[in-house]
Structures are given as structure tokens and as C-alpha cells.
Write a structure and sequence with these properties.
Component of the FACT complex. Helix content is 29%, strand content 22%. The two termini are 34 Å apart. By secondary structure, it is of the alpha+beta class.
Length: 333
């Protein structure tokens, strides 16, 4: 168990070392995977599939994750919650079924640097001598735990980040203001830049459910300009300026339903170019992109007539179901 835990610390150290500015996240995952397959191949199938996600406006940005398929690149100043672990490990010293199987998991919050290992924001001692509790049997004497740190590079990284723990509050605030100013400057340059080129390797697959308007489902809800979810083709049909307009489920980022007084509001957010997510590099100047749409319907029920808000509630439920199904299918590919 001790050797496996020390090896887990080594794997996290690889993440801290390889996660740098402009490095694809899938490459970081690949390097860690190759290390495990080379040094401890029996642990390869027991490793976690996700080695961390970016933190920001979203608590966890699912489109920026350290996985085998994520081609997004890390940028200097990004904050990540990194984590790695092994599950279903065998403990030959276990005396019952519960103690014969165990798992190991560690994590940290870090900031990406340009040409240096990541800075650790949640620095703490993780050596086996500092986190393990050794229970001695009656009359027995356990071997003394080695006090030598298992991972020397990690200690160096921690000491570097915490070089001045007694820094005054004013210095920290000045540093935060400087970082904020730099981030705003970079954001302004990114948003005003017009010279981005679309990479053919990153071009996102376009899902076209219908080749022409005549292939739209002949459903009364569509004719009445109501929202309609086509389960067969995983496509949401929305009335826009009196025209039924289809959107594949892969274009929808999230949906929310809110009740305000006598009305129900359905808000639909779409993936769109210009962000850091999936479609950051797929801007086509000839197209018009929609960031979000909001539909409102009355919640009043008069003369036993079904309220218009039922359509929004029903479509909201179907979108969540189809989204979950679509994401599961993508993970299996």
C-alpha cells in the first residue's frame, strides 16, 4: 500500500510538471498514462479517467478537462482542480472482505505557469509519514515509518509557492490586482482579435438532422409554433420569428426552467465560438451564432384549457433526458 501511494504522488507530480501554458490537456493525460503502463502496468485499468477540470465561472468546466479526448490547451493563469487515484486495489493483508479491497485518491488546486511546474494553492503534507495512522497489534511492533519524503520534487514545488507565508495582506491584494489587470488585458486582446484561423483537426463535427425543411416532423406542435423535441434525431425545434428552427442536442450547453409570477421561463444556452470550450476555434464569419434563447409562457389555467406553460415544462424534461443519453453515447465512442 505504501509503495502504491508513493507512486500515486509521483503521478501527481507528473501532472504538475507537464501542465503548462499552451499544452493540450490530452497530452498531459497521455504522459501520465504512459508512466503508469511502463512502471506499474497492473494499475493502468484502475486509474481514474479524469485527472482534473478547470475552475472559473462554472464550478467545474466540463469542456476543459484533463482526459484522453480533450484537445483544449492550458493557458497561463488558468486554475485547475487536479486529482488522480486508483480504485479496486487488492490488500493481501486484509482479514475480511471489506479490508481486502481499498482505493487511493489525492487532489490539489493549482495555477498553470508558462514554463514552470504548476503553482499549488492547496499545499499540504502528503507524505505517507504525515497522513498514515499505523495501528499496532497487541504484543506486536510495527516497523518505524520512514520520515524521508517520498517525492522530493513536490516538496520543492510546495516550498516555492509558500516561500513567503507571512506576506502582508496589502502585498497579496496588490498581487491580485496585478493578476486581474493582466487577465483583463488578455481577454480584451482575445475578444478583439480577428486573425484566428480555423484548424481542420479541431473542426467540430456538424450534426444535421434534416437536409431540408420538408423533412421536419409533421407534428401539430410544430405547426402551432410550439417547442418540440424530436427524440429520433435528438433535435430541438424552436420557433424563431415564426419559423421552426432545428438545433441538434450537441449544440445545447444547458437549460433552466424558472417560475416568476404567472409565467414560466425556459432559458436555453448554446455552445458558441469565442469561449474556451468546444467551439473556441470554429468561428465562421458567414454564420450567425446564438448564445441563448428565452421563452415565456403563461401558467394560468382557464376553462379547463391546458396552460401554455406545459409545453415548456415538457420540453425542458425531454432536453435533459436526451442530453444525458447523448453524453453517455459520446463517452462510449
Amino acid at each position: 500500500m505504501k509503495n502504491t501511494y508513493n507512486f500515486l504522488l509521483e503521478c501527481e507530480e507528473v501532472i504538475l510538471k507537464e501542465l503548462k501554458d499552451d499544452v493540450p490537456l490530452c497530452d498531459v493525460y497521455k504522459i501520465v498514462r504512459e508512466k503508469i503502463e511502463k512502471e506499474r502496468p497492473e494499475l493502468a485499468n484502475k486509474m481514474t479517467n479524469n485527472l482534473g477540470t478547470a475552475l472559473g465561472i462554472e464550478f467545474r468546466e466540463s469542456t476543459i478537462a484533463i482526459t484522453s479526448k480533450c484537445t483544449a490547451r492550458a493557458k497561463k493563469g488558468m486554475t485547475f482542480q487536479i486529482s488522480i487515484g486508483f480504485s479496486s486495489l487488492d490488500n493481501p493483508d486484509g482479514k475480511d472482505d471489506q479490508s481486502k479491497v481499498y482505493a487511493l485518491f489525492i487532489g490539489d488546486t493549482i495555477v498553470v505557469n508558462e514554463n514552470e511546474p504548476c503553482a499549488i494553492l492547496t499545499s499540504s503534507k502528503k507524505d505517507i509519514s504525515h497522513i498514515a495512522i499505523i495501528l499496532k497489534d497487541d504484543g506486536g511492533q510495527d516497523d518505524e515509518v520512514d520520515e524521508t519524503p517520498a517525492i522530493q520534487p513536490r516538496r520543492a514545488a510546495v516550498e516555492k509557492v509558500r516561500a513567503d507565508p507571512s506576506a502582508p495582506e496589502e502585498s497579496r491584494q496588490d498581487n491580485q490586482k496585478t493578476l486581474l489587470r493582466r487577465l483583463n488585458e488578455r481577454a480584451e486582446v482575445r475578444l478583439t482579435s480577428q486573425g484566428d484561423k480555423v484548424s481542420s483537426e479541431k473542426a467540430r463535427k456538424i450534426n444535421n438532422a434534416y437536409k431540408s425543411e420538408g423533412q421536419l416532423p409533421q407534428d401539430p406542435d410544430i405547426q402551432d409554433l410550439k417547442l418540440y423535441m424530436d427524440k429520433r434525431y435528438e433535435t430541438l425545434i424552436l420557433p424563431i420569428n415564426g419559423t421552426p428552427t432545428p438545433f441538434h442536442i450537441s449544440a445545447i450547453k444547458n437549460v433552466s426552467l424558472a417560475v416568476e409570477g404567472e409565467y414560466i421561463y425556459l432559458r436555453i444556452n448554446f455552445f458558441h465560438p469565442g469561449g474556451i470550450g468546444k467551439q473556441a476555434d470554429t468561428i465562421d464569419k458567414e454564420n450567425v451564432y446564438i448564445k441563448e434563447l428565452t421563452y415565456r409562457a403563461s401558467n394560468d389555467k382557464k376553462d379547463d384549457v391546458v396552460p401554455a406553460s406545459n409545453n415548456l415544462s415538457h420540453v425542458h424534461k425531454l432536453i435533459l433526458e436526451i442530453q444525458k443519453k447523448y453524453k453517455d453515447q459520446e463517452l462510449e465512442r
